[in-house]
Amino acid sequence: MGLVYRNVQFGNEAGDTWVTARTFIDTGATHCQVPASVAAHLNGRLFQRMRVLLADGTLQMRDVVYLQVKVDPELPAVLTTVMVGAEGAPALVGAVAMEQLGVGIDPSTQKLVPELPVLLRTSDWQTL
Question: What is the pTM for the complete model shown?
Fold first, then answer.
């Protein structure tokens, strides 16, 4: 599958300030990511500071903040966790936000497609 990019809006929790960025839809990333200046401009509220594994295998400590993410005009914005990246780091939409929005990527068209959430049947949980 090729790289999938979209113009994505990142917003503060109140939804009154938004930034649009060319964003990589990264199904291999857990969380979204924005550069530090975007997180500061949107006054992202700190969720936690955590150790993260980067794609090159290195470990770093990163702030994780709450921001709204809007990937498509047809979909609602979702309040989600966003990693604060270094200045110049690419904006990413990760798997958590994609799951919250109920969308995935069609590998043949590289477009966002609806995906139904998957849950365990409540009658089966004791047999696990």
Answer: 0.88
